[in-house]
Every structure is written in structure tokens, then in C-alpha cells.
User: Fold this.
Amino acid sequence: MPEPRGPFRQVLGNAGILLGGKALNGALSLGATALAARTLGVEMFGVLILVHAYVQSIGEIAKFQSWQALLQYGTAPFEAGRLGEFQRVLRFSLLLDGLSGIGGVVIALLGVQLIGSSLGWPAAISPEVSTYSLVIVFMVSATPTGALRLLNRFDLLAWQSSIDSWVRVIGAGIAWSLGAGLDVFLAIWFLGQVVAFVFLFAAAHSTLKARGALEGFKLYAKGSLTDGFPGIWSFVWSTNLNSTLALAFTHIGTLMVGALLGARDAALFRVAKQLGDAVAKPAKLIVPALYPELARLAAARDHTMLKYLVRQLALTAGGAASVLLIIAALIREPALRLLVGEEFVAAKDVLLWLLGASVVSLWALPLEPLLMSTGSAGAAFRMRLAVTLAYLPLLYWATIHGGLIGAGVAAVIGAALMLGGQLWLVLRWYRRTELPRGD
Assistant:
């Protein structure tokens, strides 16, 4: 059946473009991590990781996934040439980004004062953490990301994805040669985010302008931004809360390990997680390339093609990751020794568990995007909420009783619960679409 291959090839083609940038980005990110770890040592590197994880968590909690709203509600008017309608969605998305950035900084500053001392970093560096929290403003860049995805400019996104890491690895190299301390590395991480933010906005602006999408555009206009877009508020809240819950499996896990076991174990956990994620990273690049295609197919109600894409992508991502897991498991100890030094070889056992969690999550890769694109954002959120409510107590208990290995085992169980829950929702959607014409 040749026809369904078109969108599949389109997704893989765009993912391939992103892969070029992300492969470089992954190598640079690991390089920056290795330089920071070797310069600061395991304890202070753990502090850097905890501070960064804290700020990233607040930024993710505060920001809306407005790029998804831009694709979901802006694709049809853009392709139909309804410029005013598209610009209203764009304006709405920008407004959410602005409010998210400001709100995130306020929450982060309050958090430093109220709970900072319990998160594993020394109280003496609270002023530096407060200053670093300002970077949240530059983390909120969902609208330009969505615009470039909508316009199929994955080449620009590939370039942008490596800018932050270029700044970090060059800065970390200089800091390593000078034997610099924590404050210098925080400044480097801050600068990398700012440069990447500026590039992304400039690229999106110039691309939208070249396509005529900004003709007559004003940041402020009278009237409601959401008229004619039914369900847009519930959609953005669902996607925001969904991405917030996803933090339980990323930065919040690192913060919990730091709070329970200390900065040293947080450093080991983070290095292991970064290497585990590196195995999954190439396959996860399919997701940004997948959303625009799913939005188009869902708008056309082409359920056959949607099912084909989901099946093919799950098999491709999950199968490839399973092979990579075996390879990574065999070389994990020498890889840790080579990349970050002898101090970090102690992460080799938890690394194996985190690799396993990454592979399980890759089998679920296309499930949530499908749910988001077919009007099931609320169901996807409720499923993620249920899994998160089960996972966080499990992570706490397993870390208390099993240390780093316990945290790794909890990650695998959490990933398996998420896969099972999302698969159940997708199969339920499959059954609905196969009913006689209520379609």
C-alpha cells in the first residue's frame, strides 16, 4: 500500500534534518558536561546540575506548550490563506509565552527563598540561584518553534538546537583551562540559552515575514483572540499540565535524588540519565517532525494514515532503541570513564536501568502525539496524571530504600506504566474510528 508512505517519509525526512543538528548537539552537550564534571568535581558538578534542574523545572511548569496550539489551530487557516485568523492564533501564542516567562521567574525566585535549602545545594549560593532564575524568560520560545515547524523549516530548528551547546562547550573549555568555579559555569549556561533564544526568534520572524504571514501583524489588536477556536483554552491547559507532569520523569527525578541522597548522587544520576537519553535522542527527534503531519491528517480526518504512521513509527523507534540498548549496556563503564572520569564510574549500574526506561518510553513515542492531535488531550493528561501520582511516591520509596538503583528501577516501572496507559487510550480511539460511520 504505497500511498501511506508519503507522510511517513515526510516525518522521517524532517526528523533526519533535525538529527543532523541534534547529533552535533548531543556530542557538544556531552562535551560540555564532561568539561564541567572534570573541572568542578562530582560534588560541585552535582550542585550545578541541581540548580539547572530546579530552574528548568520551574520554566517547564510555568510555560504553556503554545506551539501545539499554533499547529492545532493555526495550520488550517494558514494553509487556506486566512491570514487574520492565523495571526490571531499567533498573537494568542505569543501572549501565553510572555506571561509564562514572567510568571516562571516570579515562581522561581519565591521558591529559592522558601524551599531552596531543601533541594541539595548550599544555602550560600542562593543569590547565584536567584540570578540564574532570570534565564527562564529565555526558555519560553514555544511560538517561534511552532512557527518553524508549521512552515516546515526543520533545517533552521536543527541549527538552533546546537547553538546553546556550542556556547556551553566553548565556554566550558575556557572555564576548564582556567580552573573556574560554579558561578562561571552558571554564567556560561545562562549565555547559551540567551543566544539560542535570540537566534530562534530572529529565524521565525524572518521566515514568517518571507511567507507573507506577518503582513499587517500587530502584537496587540482589539477583540477576543480565541473567538472561532473552540476548546483552545482547554487544549492549552491540557498540554501545559501534561508537559508539567512529564517533568516527574526528567528534572524532578534529579531534584528528588539530590534532596534525598545529596549532590554527589544527583550528579551520578544526572550523568547516567544524560547518557541514557542520548540513546533515545535520535528516535525522539521524530516527535517534533510528527506533530505537523498529524495535525494535517487529523484535520483531514484521515484515520487510516494516522494509524499507519503510529504503527510504523512505534516499530521503527522501539526496535532501533532496543538494539542500541544492548550496545550501550556493553560499553557503559568505559564510556563513563572516558567521558566524565573515574569519579563517575559509580553511575554504571543506575545507567543500565535508565537506559531500559528510555527504551520503554520509545515504544510509546508516537502515542501521545496521536492523542493530542485527535482531540484526546484531556484523556492523555488524565492518564499522565494517574501514572505520575503512582510514580512519584514509588520513586521516593525506592530511592530511600534502594539508593540510585532504586531510582533507576522506579524509572523503568514508571515508563512501563505510561506505555500501558497510553496504549490503552490509543486502542480505545482505534475502536471508535472503526465503528460504522459516526465518523
In short: The mean pLDDT is 81.
